[in-house]
Every structure is written in C-alpha cells, then in structure tokens.
Amino acid sequence: MSTRAMRRNRRSGAALIEVAVLTPVIVMLLVGMTQIARITWTYYTLRKTVYSVATYLNSQQGVNFCDPADPSIANAVSFGVIGSGVSGLTDDMISVTAESLDPATQAIIPFGGCSGPDFIVVSIPNGYLVQPSIPFFSQIDLLPLKPQVTLPYAGT
C-alpha cells in the first residue's frame, strides 16, 4: 500500500471518530433547544390565558370580588381555560384577586371592599408543572410556570 493511500485511510478514520463523538452532543443540543422552545411556548400560552381572564373580568360590570364563587369570575376563568389549549390546565389552578391603592402610603394592598378594586391580579399561584425530557438526563425536576398579570380595574 502506498503512503498516499495510508494517509487517506487515516484521515477518513479520524473523521469517522469525530462524527461518532460529536453526533450525540449535537443531538442533545437539538433536543434541548426543542424542549426550551416547548417550555417557552407553554409559558407564553399560559400568560395569554391569564391575560385573557383579566381582560374578560375587566369588561364585566357588577363583579363581586368578595365572593370567589361569583359567576362572573367563574365564567372568566372557564373562558380562559377552555380557550387556552393547554392540556391539564383546570379552573382551580387560576387565582383571581383584587388589590387597591392606599392613597396615604401609595402602596398596593390587598383589596378590603367588595366593589370597585383598583387592580385585578390573575395568576397561577401554584404553577403549571412542565416536565422537560432530554435524552441521557433521566432526572430533571419539574418546572413550575407561574405567570401573573395585574391590570387596572375598569369595571364598576
């Protein structure tokens, strides 16, 4: 065998080893990127859902924020959950609270009255749990996604 043929065989062997070593790393990076994209999309969708609930409530009249079972609040939450398209999201995961502005201290405080708060806060306080799955990593903790929206209340 000539020296030229031996060099060619060494180069092709080195390239094969490089491909064998780098392919799993590249595949893990691609899968990791898709998982990050999936989690980002889920958070964005949850944030849109929470915002939809807040804007729906903002357009309602006569909402009783003292009663968590108020039909307007329940309808707004159901509207958001049904329209979200996120599997596993339920009505009881979404929290609606009211806040008011203390004129003396200019601080946001929990709402004490039953009509006309200054702000509506809609959130998923316990989080929506997402499980990322990346090959070769068997133990990845659940990620709680906790979007929250605060809107000035415009209703009466």
Explain what the structure shows.
- By secondary structure, the protein is an alpha+beta fold.
- It has one domain (3-152).
- The protein has two helices and six strands; from the N terminus they run H-H-E-E-E-E-E-E.
- The strands form two sheets. Strands 2-1-3-6 form a four-stranded antiparallel β-sheet. Strands 4-5 form a two-stranded antiparallel ribbon.
- Strand 1 (95-102) and strand 2 (107-110) form a beta hairpin.
- The protein is elongated.
- The relative contact order is 0.17.
- The mean pLDDT is 85.
H/I helix tally: 2
Beta percentage is 15-25%
Helix-strand pattern, N to C?
Answer: HHEEEEEE
Please tell me what the overall shape is. Answer: elongated
Question: Helices, strands, pairings?
Answer:
Layout: H1 3-58, H2 71-84, E1 95-102, E2 107-110, E3 119-123, E4 128-130, E5 143-145, E6 148-152
Antiparallel strand pairs: 1-2, 1-3, 3-6, 4-5
Helix pairs in contact: 1-2
Structure, briefly:
By secondary structure, this protein is of the alpha+beta class. Helix content is 45%, strand content 18%. The chain has two helices and six strands, in the order H-H-E-E-E-E-E-E.
